[in-house]
Write a structure and sequence with these properties.
This protein is an alpha/beta fold. The protein has five helices and eleven strands.
Length: 212
Amino acid sequence: MPESWLPQQGAAAPIEAGTLVVARTGDARAFVLTAAGGKITVAEHEGPLPANAVHVPAPGGDGLPRYEDGSPLPPFDEAPLFEALDRVVGATMEGELDLSGNPYGARAFRYSFVDGRLAELRFAERVPRPAALGRTPPDGLQLTWSASWERWLLWRAGQLSGEQFLEGAQIAGTWPYIALAQGLFEHDAFVAGRRTLPAVAPELALLQLIDF
């Protein structure tokens, strides 16, 4: 019988086919989620964990999901690229990216930049916010933008430019912060480094079914 944090046998899958090995951080057991024909089967994993097995924290626990080798999942794998950008005094911003259909359920991504470099990237509660160009968003944020995970994947892979990605996005923020975000996310070093990162595995969509 599956653990309570795992999907039920036969539950609807967000992808037609795929396999993901998952474990809770600190737990010796792991499980295989298999999507086939749009349905899920769950089985206990046997043997060594593959490098692409995903460790997730317990509900309410600290930490981020990580692969077996310790590397972070997207978009958190982009953090070192932002941390290495040139220091620009005053280029400080708190922004939130909300991607519908992302693998992490009702979560958005909170970016904190200080003097042009990333200070923190973490999950945030997903709170729909209306687009308000030219106005400061609530909750101490300088910028919020909402789009779909599918379009974000195309942007990450370089198949969409930043301008094309924003065409389908809803943005709230004043023009100076919109320009700052564009400068950060379209920085040559960031764009070049992003293209060297591994492709995002479609199987990560199965994380939507996990309670963490």
